[in-house]
Amino acid sequence: MDEETAPKLDDCATDSPQEQCAVDSGNLTQAIIGVARLHRVLAGTLLRKVGLHPSQELVMMRLWVEGPQRQADLAKMLGTDSATMTRTVQRLEAGGFVRRVPCEHDRRATIVEATPASLGAREDVEASWRELEDCVTRGLSEEELASMLRLLGKMQCSLAEAIAKSREFTD
Questions:
Q1: Number of H helices and number of E strands within the chain?
Q2: What is the pLDDT of residue 9?
Q3: Which of 42, 73, 79, 135 is at 20 to 30 A from 103, Cα to Cα?
Q4: How big is the chain by its Cα radius of gyration, in Å?
């Protein structure tokens, strides 16, 4: 990134000098960390209005779209471990968003389903996602957005390949 195309300090609306330095320095990893952190903070702020925390909306969207799921399948689909999913589901259950029932065919498995009361939150979650997307893409041209999505896709593939290779050596 050359000096003319690098974001400048006043181009970013953040109170954190660390994030500013990461963007200004051109260090890609630091920039990704800074953007991810800010994205999560804003997502958390928007989702709290609905009564959810980041990542919980992913579980809820999966349940709203696909219906009841085995808890282990939810963990696998969302790329998390079973302990984390258990805590997430317990919190969602305490909030009245889901209920857990034993699986009829496998006594070891738990089925998680959205409660009827949670259905009203779906529109609010989708509106939060739209607002988050609008904030993230504000000021980007269609071409810049298309380019960013293409580049992020490449980075995601590269990281997935690196993870797969690292697992080959540790398994």
A1: 7, 3
A2: 33
A3: 79
A4: 19
Q: CA 20 to CA 14: how far, in whole Å?
A: 8
Q: How far apart are CA 34 and CA 15, in angstroms?
A: 12
For residue 62, give Cα distances in angstroms to 39, 85, 104, 152: 21, 13, 21, 23
Would you give per-residue pLDDT tens digits along the chain (171 residues)? 344 443 333 444 555 555 555 555 568 889 899 999 999 999 999 999 999 999 999 999 999 999 999 999 999 999 999 999 999 999 999 999 999 999 888 888 999 999 999 999 999 999 999 999 999 999 999 999 999 999 999 999 999 999 988 888 776
CA-based diameter of the chain, in Å?
62
**The two three-digit tokens of residue 106, written as one number:** 């496998």
Rounded to whole angstroms, the Cα distance separating 14 from 21 reads 11
Instruction: Give the position of tokens 């889901």.
Output: 98
Distance from C-alpha of 20 to C-alpha of 17, rounded to nearest angstrom:
5
Residues in the chain, total: 171
